[in-house]
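Researcher: Please predict.
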Amino acid sequence: MARKERIELIRQIEDHRGSRLICCLTSDRQNAAGIIAKDFIPVFFNRLLKFQSGRKIDVLMCTIGGDTLAAFGLSRLIREFTDTVAVLVPEKCQSAGTLFALGANEIFMTRAATLSPIDPSVNGPLNPVVELAPGQRQSVAVSVESVAGYRALVTEDWRLNDAGTDIAFKILAEQINPLALGDVYRSRQQIERLARTLIKYHRQDERNIEKIVQEITRGLGSHDYLISRTEARELLGAQVAGDDVILEKLVWELFCDFRDEMQLGQIFDPIILLHGAVQAGKKLPLLNQQKVVVVEVAEGGDEFERVAQISQTQLMTPAGPTLQPQVAMVRVGWRGYD
């Protein structure tokens, strides 16, 4: 679908809702993923400046997550322009995306949509490191709830005595730097505070707010747990909108166009791309454009793109010479369009 037709879909949603719509999608592609980040804030700000002040704003959000503080900042930024915010979720709005959605007066989910827990993982120089292969080492993110789960295992399931508990936590500290464990504790406190702050923009029932915060940060067992529309309604109540067949059709059609353009769900595999190029007789190196993030309104948009140059080199292995792909990024950054 051309940009012209997508503008028409955006306008139809705005007319149906009596709102202005801003679309934000981050890539879920393996090896070419995008995440919510703090540099979204000036991009959103420039687009929001064109909106009529005080009018209801809808945000179509599709993301696997990202920086929770960036999501928090985006939610509060939109509140500077309107008192009424809705998040439209066509498919996935997970992790930091769910945190963003918690700040909305209304969440509209298609039947294919999912939210997720918002328990964060800690990444930093003190994180544990694993060796993937000789000479290849990778830092491992420390999940806040994994550490909490280990504590519950030791104290509630195994019910070790004091000496056993001391040994169990000594083993943990040998695997994860104690300062990183301190960051884990602080991250849990922070994510609960962020969620509580955003929810209080649109509801004041303290008991239910606390129930929601505890459930979505601690109660669902796994960061990968998917919250369906039905479960979201049970957890969040009237914040999750009722059925709207017309809106669902429009939101899904708009999402499908973005999905095709951004190649969402498709793995970025240089070997497959090289093989296809060789079979087609194309010259190397290849240039592969990846739309990692799209922020779009009817008047225009911004995309964060990566352009990868893909070539191949010959390496000597015990089995003989082998061709290996080489990938170099030749452009990374935001680009605006009308």
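Model: The two ends are 15 Å apart (CA to CA).
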